[in-house]
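Input record, target 12 of the design panel.
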């Protein structure tokens, strides 16, 4: 059954009512407003303003997806939670929480985590499960994300995280669905970056204690050796994002010349433009997430949904999806519209 098409039926999202615009981020960080907006490419980010727990964002997105596609909860055979593991509680079954909340009693599921590369992995695994199991025909991907809690705007070393946003996202994939078919994916990993970006306290190495709980440095995302990190990562990130798309296209017997459109993660404007140059695409053949910021692993789904709603892609065209996550991983997917 490995030649059976598997496509995306539709998407669902959940965003807080609260936002931070570029002016507020500028005020918090000390970076000029025009730099935040034009260089960083941020019009606004979403910020949790109430009881918007990670699981609740995932559940709201899943329900939005079900409502938009008309798929019934009992039709779902498998749920893949692909959001962040920073959630309501430590050691928490987020996939189980989603399954119970939406009433998908016939589905089993599990959670995955390769940080902001998780969406592409989840889509690939959904496809593989459907192609190799007769009893799996409909898969729900859902997740929540609020890592914005961990961003310290006063730390200039992590200025590349000022675009981090908050939300929930979901999509439904079905066996035999003829639209938005996932053709292939590819990934590159470099584990030498595994310890480059961490939250110092709260894990087994440095547990939270009464002595360190009030130390603000220990409870936000921090970058080790900022200069070396930027130099090393800067040299390989855009080439790797292009390379994974090239590899994914090659699996389908195609090259970068066959790519019609790009749905990328949010990056600063200069990096976005350079990636398009590497791929041979003009600016109008991609979406840019300035009104969302970087909603972690959900950027690809937001971009795909924008492309669909705005009519930017025609039936039969080849769309590239690109992402990357801490650790460090770069991955890409090829979708036939």
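The sequence produced for target 12 reads:
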């Amino acid at each position: 059954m490995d030649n059976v098409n598997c496509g995306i039926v539709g998407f669902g999202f959940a965003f807080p009512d609260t936002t931070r615009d570029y002016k507020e981020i500028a005020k918090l960080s000390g970076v000029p407003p025009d730099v935040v907006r034009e260089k960083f490419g941020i019009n606004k980010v979403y910020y949790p303003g109430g009881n918007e727990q990670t699981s609740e964002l995932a559940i709201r997105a899943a329900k939005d997806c079900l409502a938009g596609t008309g798929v019934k909860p009992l039709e779902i055979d498998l749920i893949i939670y692909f959001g962040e593991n920073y959630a309501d509680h430590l050691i928490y079954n987020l996939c189980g929480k989603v399954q119970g909340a939406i009433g998908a009693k016939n589905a089993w599921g599990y959670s995955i985590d390769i940080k902001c590369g998780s969406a592409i992995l989840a889509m690939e695994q959904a496809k593989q499960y459907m192609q190799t199991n007769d009893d799996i025909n409909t898969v729900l991907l859902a997740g929540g994300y609020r890592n914005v809690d961990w961003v310290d705007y006063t730390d200039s070393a992590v200025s590349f995280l000022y675009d981090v946003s908050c939300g929930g996202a979901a999509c439904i994939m079905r066996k035999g669905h003829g639209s938005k078919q996932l053709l292939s994916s590819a990934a590159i990993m470099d584990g030498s970056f595994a310890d480059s970006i961490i939250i110092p306290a709260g894990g087994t190495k440095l547990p939270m204690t009464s002595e360190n709980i009030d130390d603000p440095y220990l409870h936000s995302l921090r970058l080790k050796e900022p200069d070396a990190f930027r130099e090393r990562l800067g040299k390989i990130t855009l080439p790797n994002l292009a390379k994974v798309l090239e590899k994914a296209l090659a699996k389908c017997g195609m090259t970068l010349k066959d790519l019609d459109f790009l749905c990328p993660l949010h990056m600063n404007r200069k990096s976005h433009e350079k990636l398009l140059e590497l791929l041979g695409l003009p600016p109008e053949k991609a979406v840019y997430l300035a009104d969302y910021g970087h909603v972690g692993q959900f950027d690809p789904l937001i971009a795909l949904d924008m492309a669909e709603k705005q009519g930017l892609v025609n039936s039969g065209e080849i769309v590239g999806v690109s992402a990357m996550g801490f650790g460090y991983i770069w991955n890409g997917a090829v979708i036939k519209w």
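The helical segments are 22-29, 33-39, 54-69, 94-102, 118-132, 226-251, 269-279, 299-309.
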